Fold this sequence. Notes:
Blueprint: E1 2-6, H1 10-22, E2 26-30, H2 33-42, E3 47-51, H3 59-68, E4 76-80, H4 85-93, E5 98-101, H5 106-121, E6 127-130, E7 133-136, E8 141-144, E9 147-149, H6 153-165, E10 169-171, H7 172-180, H8 189-201, E11 210-213, E12 217-220
Parallel strand pairs: 1-2, 1-3, 3-4, 4-5
Antiparallel strand pairs: 6-7, 7-8, 8-9, 10-12, 11-12
Amino acid sequence: MRILIVEDNRDILSNILDYLQLKGFVTDCAEDGLSGLHLAATHQYDLIVLDIMLPAIDGLEICRRLREDGRNDTPIIMLTARDTLENRLEGFAHGADDYLVKPFALSELAARIEAMLRRIHGKNRRRLEVADLRYDLDTLEISRANKPLKLNPTELRLLEILMQKSPAVVRRETLEEALWGEDVPDSDSLRSHIYQLRQAMDKPFPTPLLHTVHGVGFCLAARENGR
């Protein structure tokens, strides 16, 4: 499950990220309204945790913009210090699905997230498949030829993108932006994660799935058709 956290208080944000990652969620984050709106509008998330009081654009406006065209129905849990009935009704009127008042226990936030995801997804599991490679987006379980694979959160996101686009070629720049936004660690970071992904999903098996298209990017396919 992939969750976006939009919160400008760095201590609160760090605590939420650490706790949810320990619970097995893949997380992205933003510390201001504009960045949060951009991520929410251009990436696919299972749920958004959204603070109301944000720099640039507040959470209510973000929620309104995501809902206004009727195409973004990602569940949203609002975080706020405002605890009046009018405040809660305003959040719901803008499209929020749930409302959590600060200060809150991280265990309660996680419980609300899990309950909402159960209601929305129910028994309908979301799976990606390329050849004998399987990725369950709900449980984050990956296997190839029925053999479980272990990947870190960055490699999980990288694999998700490549599988969703398969068999098309995904440009290096597209992958770097999806993984790190404008803060790409260094020129070798993507190469390192591609190498680790190959070690996990190709090296133990006779047929490679991950292919390099030199000077362009990478593709995931049962046979090398990206050149």
